[in-house]
Peptide hydrolase
Amino acid sequence: MTVIIFTFNPQLLYLELSENISSDINSNTNISSSFISDSSMQCVAFPAVNVFTAVERLKLFRKICGTIDDSTLKQEFANYEIYKKDVSTFTTFSQKYASSLPKLSKMVLQYGTIPDTSVSSESLFSIAGYMAHNNGRTRALGTSGFKATVDYIETQLKSKTNFHVFKEEFAVPVGIRREPVLTSTIAGVDKNYTYETDFRMIFSSAPADFLIPIRLTIIPNSGCEDEDWQRATPYPANGSIAIVVHDQNCSVQQKSIVAQKYNINGLLLYNNINSTSLPFAVAAENITYIAMTVSYEVGSQLSEAVQNHVSTNPHVRMFMVPGNMQRVNISSENLCADIPTGNRTQTIVIGSHSDSIENGSGINDNGSGAMATLVLALNMANLLQTSFYEKYMYRIRFCWWGAEERNMYGSFHHVEQANITTVEGNRLKDYLMMLNFDMLASPNYYFGIHQGNGLPDIVSSKVRNGSERIAQIFRNWFDQENLPWDNSSLGLLSDHVPFLVSGIPCGGLFTGADGHKTLEQRDRYDRMLGHGYGGIAKASFDPCYHETCDTIENTNPFAFETMVKAAAYTIETFARMSNLYQYLYE
């Protein structure tokens, strides 16, 4: 097995190489010796399988191993054909256990060569990346990227399956940040000012939202003394927005305390020198008026307007609410697809969320899970339409949840509707179990199996036991294929949560997020899969979790394909059980 070694910034990660790995490097790579400058402390990059060339793939390790210049990469790896070696290795590895897989899993094993009914891992991730890249680099709630993702999945299902496909629309209440507002009206002309350029909030300011403009008044001198305020122009200052110079004659706290006596509605503090910078200022605690600093230019313009147009009384409008947040509703949707056969009062739900965070493409989180669920659905549809494939006694419902990154709003909406509906097949009591696939392609992966043990008391003991029995089927597959695995807590942070707390046993797979791989895990995976496949000890499973770098380069195709096969095996195993209810609940 080929292992690639990088020098790296020792402040980021330390990993000691064993002698046999060093020997493997010397005999199996043509990397120049100058690139390996330190033989004792290096960053080990495990090989990704089946999709990326060396240069494309190794870009990911900038985040783990420090900055690696593109030109250096191209020079060092120009003649290094790891892509071909990886494909050959993976093909051999897959064929080793293909004969023991159920039909659905065998079909999934071949999905790269069945263009009419399946999608390869490369094209799957490319699709998810394309949806994000061409729609603001995100698939977050309310974005065109999210809509494009759901539309693509819906089109695939409607064109390639005979499933019943439907959407569930819902509204998500969210807080939208509103920047403070400052506008002026001088001689009938309105002007809007730019936050952080023309003005800034003063710390300890009270909130305000003036529906109508408030008159301006100038406080002479520095506004440090009562006599300054008693000479306000126009007089009195009460109920006005006061303009006060920001200088060194007294502190902002003192100015704000004196201002409090005169019942002003607001305070505008401006520089006394011609500068484009905005001062940071802190007022006294418990002031009852809104307070802002403004630039020298804005302060001078407003002061001049007051002095020149006293008879017209220039006005300003100021706005700032606590936290600068406004509650709005954003529409979103779940997408579900039911197979046409099976008992609809005994349904197996298979789900993944189709949204991402706002500042990233979310290709691993959760393009990997969403596309895995699509692969499973398309292959199942193909099998169910053949004459040789026996139909399931249970109905299978595939769902792609919206707004998971917004407190799992989509899956909670689905369960809430299932709790109140009387439509047979859509009732909560019609659901036997739920499988959740969230993050299946972490670059520094582990094969995580969600376990029922360790769930909080909010989940009933019956549901915990049923969830543990689901986990056991996953473990059986990994054991019989001699693959490593680890227990992973179901936790309360993904779309299985509303099902769990509503009495439905749940399970699923997970390749890791911001947790760190242990040395024991790295060594165990190396031992069972081959050197290099163990990954990087003491590094994040997904260094780009909830980051902008969660792109196609942030995925491990070997982990993804392994997890999809495990999911296929497990789904078919449950679908073929004659006593699934008893297995889960008794």
Notes: Confidence is low (pLDDT under 50) at residues 1-100, 111-120. The first helix runs from residue 19 to 28.
